[in-house]
UniProtKB/TrEMBL annotation:
Residues 19-69 form the ABM domain. This is GyrI-like domain-containing protein. Pfam families: ABM, GyrI-like. Residues 123-303 form the GyrI-like small molecule binding domain. It comes from the Bacteria.
């Protein structure tokens, strides 16, 4: 996969203002705050506003206003409604603290947040899944061909565009593990079909706040800025695999057949039948993991077999 260039973004900031309202506004301070809020919300770069009132000190307030950047916050801070303040005790801007601990707290990491989805044992077992959002791009053929590699580049380009766009509005997330669905048109077991007949659907899970409109915008930007035309085939889908059977495979992707055979035996013994595509979640990164230690979750949606 070729190296990717991502757009630079400014860090969102929180403007914190601790202030007292003039005594002659003691009867209409709620109206004053309402006017202030409506004024602030019209400024370019505004994200979110929250006002807090002191319990023990009369007419003492704290405003917390989130902005896209420090420049946009400063442009708004000297507007005329500040004239109703009796005293400004603190007015400053704060950005997220970026040490390793708080970075994990701020970012949505689905791998950590949804262990039910990303953990599997060495023995087949049943799992219940809810409908989830994914980026998706489809194709046909062996994973070694260029079309597959270009599709991987396209879906990761869209994923990172969405990540950085979301980060700029305070919704950063970790790009999730790559996944893939595999099948053949004839319906034959994937392990028995020639690789050139494999149809695939590359998947990357997305946070719930990612919408189709955001993906469409990301596609336009990636095509325009990165000249990745295949990005046009990336879509946002909802996948509902519901009841599934899964197992953790350790080792080479080429040695999955025996693991799949164990999974299929479990399905038959529990009076179930396959109800969807062969699904793999690539838990390990093959670029820096020895082949014998690669971990891959193999998952099949199932339903009750009819006797």
């Amino acid at each position: 996969m070729t190296s990717l260039v991502y757009p630079k973004t400014q860090t969102a900031v929180v403007e914190t203002v601790i202030y007292k309202i003039k005594p002659d506004h003691s009867d209409d301070f709620e109206e004053v705050l309402s006017i202030a809020r409506s004024t602030i919300e019209k400024f370019p770069g505004f994200i979110e506003y929250k006002a807090l009132r002191s319990i023990s000190r009369d007419l003492l307030f704290i405003d917390l206003v989130k902005w896209n950047s420090i420049d946009l916050a400063r442009k708004a801070e000297l507007e005329s409604f500040i004239a109703v303040f009796d005293e400004i005790l603190i007015m400053d801007h704060f950005e997220p603290f970026t040490d390793d601990i708080t970075r994990h707290i701020r970012k949505l990491d689905l791998f950590r947040a949804d262990p039910n989805y990303y953990q599997a044992s060495q023995e087949p077992h049943i799992i219940e899944l809810k409908p989830l959002k994914y980026l998706s791009i489809k194709g046909i053929g062996t994973p070694e061909n260029m079309n597959f590699k270009n599709a991987v580049e396209a879906i990761y380009s869209i994923s990172y565009n969405l990540k950085f766009t979301s980060k700029s509005i305070g919704k950063d997330f970790v790009v999730a593990k790559m996944e893939g669905q595999w099948w053949v048109e004839s319906g034959a077991p994937i392990a028995e079909a020639p690789p050139e007949e494999w149809q695939w659907n590359i998947l990357i899970r997305m946070p719930e706040f990612i919408s189709t409109n955001k993906v469409d915008k990301a596609v336009e930007e990636v095509i325009h800025k990165n000249n990745i035309s295949l990005a046009n085939e990336v879509q946002l889908i909802t996948l509902n695999e519901s009841r599934s059977v899964q197992i953790m495979h350790t080792g080479s992707y080429n040695d999955e057949k025996s693991t799949i055979d164990r999974l299929m035996k479990f399905i038959r013994e529990h009076s179930l039948k396959v109800n969807g595509y062969h699904h793999e979640i690539f838990v390990s990164d093959p670029r820096n993991t020895p082949i014998e230690k690669l971990k891959t979750i193999i998952r099949y949606p199932v339903k009750q077999a009819v006797n």
